[in-house]
């Protein structure tokens, strides 16, 4: 039994939600809140959690070693297919927050996620459950607005739509914590780790860093005191979304494409390569000039990323990061270029951005077996094809020349690097 208030319903419970939402909620002060968790569809995760009273071990994996704590925030776990339980808990007046981690696919046309949310909201309206907040924790720009559009788009009843518009709020948020997949070795290692839950079969492994920036758009709806656990409550998440996209995600893409060209397998290995590190610093310099945040805050974010990327025990593979470049590069790299040109049309494309785009071009043309991206140009593409896929408005002579020169530099440096390549090692993510 638990004395936690079951005020949060979460859809899509997985490793990230348990390392982020549940961890932050566990560390708040004041009234202890609990989470009723639903899987995507499969009952496996719910059954595993229920078998150990929904408690689990969170392993924080630093370069110096592991720390463990038992998280008890989840008060019940259900299969996502349990529609009866879903409608019941969303309709309950005790529930005031519904959170989601369903990946970008969950918001797209054809996903059943919006329909499931609408079904729950319809039950709540019928039961008189009162106002409620729906909160996306997925890596989408303006995820609150994206979620609102998806929910309203799936609502066919005009009376229900009017109720949603009046009584449901959709705060945006920015979340960040690298959470690799748990391995059999991680589970086996718990026996020797102080603080771990005895017999835990579903621990979560995560990095020490965690961040959550949350829009203050609850309009009086009750929520946990997340700010007491370090959550940053702001009027507008946009600058923080940009900071994450342009610094963390942008450099991840650059390291993926450039690092793979230079024979690396992981973020840590690529970041240890002076050529890759210099390109990352260039990209960060360009992004820093466009970010609407204090310089000291941007500098602190960069320093934190250096430490995070260098952690060899969080094995983040470049091949995984490299997928979907045609969707990722426009918001991670091209957006900075557009801000740069908007501020100063004569500035041209920066060397960091040119290197990132050139590295992607070489990735799709010289490493087609590593490409996982329906929107990528083919293996015989030229720089114009690349720009057509991610930034047709930037297909100018100056930009083309800069990207072509960057590609030439990458080819020359990669050829030299491969003659002295070494094997990357680390813990599987």
Explain what you see.
The protein is α/β, with parallel strands linked by helices. It has 17 helices and twelve strands. The strands form three sheets. Strands 5-2-1-6-7-8 form a six-stranded parallel sheet. Strands 4-3-10 form a three-stranded mixed sheet. Helix 5 (113-127) links the parallel strand 6 and strand 7. The longest helix is centred in the middle third of the chain and has 24 residues, at 238-261. The radius of gyration is 23 Å and the shape is globular. The two termini are 34 Å apart. Residues 421-429 have low confidence and may be disordered.
Quick recap:
It holds the Pfam family Mannitol_dh. The chain is an alpha/beta fold and 429 residues long. The protein is built from 17 helices and twelve strands.
Radius of gyration, taken over Cα atoms and rounded to an integer in Å: 23 Å
Query: What is the molecular shape?
Result: globular
Q: Spell out the helices and strands N to C.
A: EHHEHEEEHEHEHHEEHEEEHHHHHHHHH
Beta-strand portion reads: 5-15%
CATH topology of the largest domain: Rossmann fold
What attributes does this structure have?
429 residues, alpha/beta, Rossmann fold, N-(1-d-carboxylethyl)-l-norvaline Dehydrogenase, domain 2, six-stranded parallel beta sheet, three-stranded mixed beta sheet, 17 helices, 12 strands, Mannitol_DH_C, EC 1.1.1.17, Mannitol-1-phosphate 5-dehydrogenase, NAD, 6-PGluconate_DH-like_C_sf
């Amino acid at each position: 039994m638990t004395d936690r208030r079951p005020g949060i319903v979460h859809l899509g419970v997985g490793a990230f939600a348990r390392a982020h939402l549940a961890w932050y909620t566990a560390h708040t002060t004041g009234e202890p809140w609990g989470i009723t968790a639903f899987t995507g569809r499969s009952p496996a995760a719910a059954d595993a959690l229920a078998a150990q009273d929904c408690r689990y071990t969170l392993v924080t994996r630093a370069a110096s070693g592991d720390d463990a704590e038992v998280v008890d925030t989840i008060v019940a776990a259900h299969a996502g297919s349990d529609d009866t339980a879903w409608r019941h808990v969303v309709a309950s007046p005790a529930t005031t927050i519904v959170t989601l981690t369903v990946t970008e696919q969950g918001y797209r046309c054809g996903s059943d996620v919006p329909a499931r949310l609408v079904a729950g909201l319809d039950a709540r309206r019928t039961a008189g459950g009162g106002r409620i907040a729906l909160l996306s924790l997925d890596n989408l720009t303006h995820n609150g607005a994206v979620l609102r559009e998806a929910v309203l788009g799936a609502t066919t009843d005009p009376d229900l739509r009017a109720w949603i518009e009046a009584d449901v709020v959709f705060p945006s948020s920015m979340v960040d914590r690298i959470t690799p997949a748990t391995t059999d070795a991680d589970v086996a290692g718990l026996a020797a780790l102080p603080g771990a839950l005895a017999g835990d079969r579903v621990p979560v492994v995560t990095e020490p860093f965690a961040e959550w920036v949350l829009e203050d758009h609850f309009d009086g709806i009750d929520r946990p005191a997340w700010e007491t656990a370090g959550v940053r409550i702001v009027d507008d998440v946009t600058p923080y979304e940009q900071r994450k996209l342009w610094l963390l995600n942008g450099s991840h893409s650059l390291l993926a494409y450039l690092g793979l060209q230079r024979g690396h397998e992981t973020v840590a290995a690529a970041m240890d390569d002076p050529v890759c590190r210099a390109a990352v610093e260039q990209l960060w310099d360009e992004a820093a000039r466009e970010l609407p945040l204090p310089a000291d805050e941007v500098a602190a974010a960069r320093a934190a990323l250096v430490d995070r990327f260098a952690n060899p025990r969080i094995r983040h593979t470049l091949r995984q990061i490299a997928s979907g470049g045609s969707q990722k590069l426009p918001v991670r790299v091209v957006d900075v270029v557009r801000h740069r040109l908007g501020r100063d049309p004569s500035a041209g494309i920066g060397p960091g951005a040119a290197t990132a785009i050139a590295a992607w071009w070489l990735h799709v043309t010289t490493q087609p077996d590593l490409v996982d991206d329906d929107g990528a140009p083919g293996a015989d593409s030229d720089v114009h094809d690349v720009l057509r896929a991610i930034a047709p408005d930037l297909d100018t002579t100056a930009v083309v020349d800069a990207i072509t020169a960057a590609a030439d530099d990458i080819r020359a440096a990669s050829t030299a690097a491969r003659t002295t390549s070494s094997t990357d090692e680390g813990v599987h993510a």
